[in-house]
Amino acid sequence: MTEAPSTDSSCDRERTILTTDIVGSTALLRRFPNDMLAAMDLHDQILHAAIRRHAGDPFRSTGDGVLAAFDRPLDAVLAAIEAQREMRHVNWGPTGRLQVRFGIHTGATRSRGEKDLFGPALPTATRLQSAANADQILLSDATVRRLAADLLQTPFQLADLGEHHFKGIEPIRVHQVCATDLPNTFPPIGGKRESASGNLPANLSSFLGRERELDELAALALDSRLLTLVGPGGIGKTRLAIEFARSLEPSFSGGAWLIELSALERDGDVWPAIAEALLIPPSPGVQPRVQVLERLQDVRAVLVMDNCEHVLDPIANAVTELGSACGELFLINTSRGTLGVEGEAVYEVPSLDSGAQDRSGQSAAVRLFIERGRLANHRFQPGAQDIATIARICAGVDCIPLAIEIAAAQLRHRALENIESGITRPLDLHAGGPRRRVGRHRTLRNTLEWSYELLDPNSRQVLQRLSVLSGSFHEEQALAICAGDMASEFDVLRGIDELTETSLLHRDAGNQQRLRMLQTVQAFGREKLDQSGLLQAVEARHGEVYAARVRKLGEQIASIHEAKATNAIYDDMPNLRAAFDRAITRDLKLAAELAVPLFLFNYWHRGAETGNWYERIMTRPGADKLEQMPILLAGAAGHAFHDEGDQAKAIAFVERGLQAEAAGMRPSRGWLCHVLGQMAQWAGDPKACIKHLTAAIAHAQAAENLPCEVMSLCMIANVRARTGDSEGAAGVVKQVSDIGQAVLPPTLMGYIHYARGGIAEDPRIAIDEYETTAEWAKMAGNHLGVQRVKQLIADLRAANVPPAEALDIHIRSLMELPSHGTTFYTWLTIRSLILPLAGLAAYEELAVLAGALKTSPLKLDRAARDAVTKARDNLGDNLFETAAARGSGFDPTQARRYIIEAWRRMTAARSQADAANP
Asked: If 184 and its partner were Cys, which of 178, 189, 415, 548 is the partner (CB 3.0–4.6 Å)?
């Protein structure tokens, strides 16, 4: 009987609790980090509106869901139906429709504070919600009983799903809401049915971090009753298959059964193992195959065939016959390769997610290590620094569950730091834990040896050669590396196919031509290659292949295919890095061949890790004999000036490069003079700037170096415009615009609009041109260029607004700058803050920044110098010098942090003042 509401909020009271959850929210947030925030706002708006329209109280947000309380159960159900319908009709944008599951239960609750609730009704509703499928609304039997009086009038029906067991609560009968124009057919829900049977092993440890995978398997189960989970050894196929079978078990009266095949000989008979797992006793004169088919003919059951890789043909035949003869069976297989039978849905099991985090900020991989570590050493209580170490350990073993468990077991005898040092050789980590672990799972080496022995000799050769590759790589480069000593491309492709089929190699889901090998597999393959005596020869071939690759991409950067080439360089960065790191100590000429074609990429995409390659080359013995010495020094100078803000170092590199050109080495095609011109521009020397850039144009034209010519002309136009030579600037802009009639890379088109914006007298026209520049930069994938243009727009918008608003504009611009590769642009934005700080009489902050700017390569213009003088006059010499001395010790990062914190204090003070004087 429903208890009457009490006037005392601290007393127990029966309420109907509705709880929701977004299915797959972690994956969506990782894929659409910005769009997901807008989608979450829309989700919250729809849910809260539906709840309130039906007299509900959304009293708590769970991050990707909501808890709401209702006085009437009917209102809770109607709110859920209405929210589901609304979510199916709105435009969600790039994320697509968010799929929400609902749990509703009626029971005792108690108020906690002014707004929150707690009590037994909440965990029951949450268990129902967790068991639901995407778009499903589940009710407890308690809620249905209280709906009885209203059921004849409701616009929905209920489906009885039977009694279920859920962790931590008493068994309950579960019902599903069925409404018109909403989905009503779903896979079996979570929880265990009372009538279930089978032999699935009980969990001796928790199952962590596979929520997304279980959801994806459930979606596959809608279309196929034959699933094969594939992946390398130790990835967690068996545990995931068992847990998925456990989630299906309540809907299969014949139970869920695990058939372990690992003990069978290669290509052995599988039927006796299936019969034994199903507890079918041997019968004289009757084959196990016949016994199994008779037993399962009309049975609705789940079979998990575990470890199929060494009996692929026999198990494929058995699964085909079982699927045909037993129409109610659901078959789950685990293997390092696919079965290749009709109707098979293949699911590739990934490593544990190292990016998605729970509310404590820990990933599933880290949580697994901590939990298993505590089983090995109950005193293990990791602190913040330990968590970072654990994250590195997990990353070092590819977040493979078996490897994490083996590493965590070392805590019984070893310190965390020693375990981290040990993962440099992860193949040799010994389980040291459960002694009954299958032999091939005692170490990663055993696991991989098992897979390696199942390969044919040709595929073993391919595995060894591909082990010199890093990260993601294109099939074209894989073929080129193997071609060094494997003459048949057909044999290489056949080997690649077998490696992907056995999960030792993976194809990128978004680009089937790109491949990836886990670090642990790579380490194993390199060992085998080293044992063959071919490691250094294949590594040298790898460097040559990527030098050829980067030459092609360097040509594309200077064409309309710039964006495609840029993306390809970032995709290939792990292999470019590996090739360069080996070449820098073994073959300096090869290192130069890898670095030189990336000059434009590094110049336009400042902050890339390849930017410092030029200096690394030029500090090596023998660098002065490289014929590419001038362009290498131009690259080193550009990096020193733009990324490090070190003008003296940059000038030294340029002078050395000019001397090399004079000595007859291959010229830089204008780039050395161009870098000199840039440095003169920002040093406030327009005459020297124009002089150097004019020389750069002459060299560029002689060498047909269009990027250097266009960029130098655009810079001259801006310098002439800023020094009052409007006519000269307009002439240069016309000249460069005529060049722009040809097909140019997006970045160069952006430079032309940048020049047009620089000569525009109307700020609105200038902003339009700069915004066009930003669009071209986006098209080129030049995100830093976009930020630089936004900085110019900020300067124009801040010029004609009150100081407080101008300060806000520049601070926002500063906060948007990336933390790497932006030293120069950071100083530019900090310089822009001088005038608004003076306008706000923030003289101490101004003095600190003035001191910091003295160490930068920039000069202050007259207006800024006047503002500094004004600050000195108001503070007095002693206070001003003290503040400036503090700033003189700041690098760009420290200056940036200082002024952002100062701005936050000033903004808070303004808000308080406004509140006090409305």
From this structure: 178
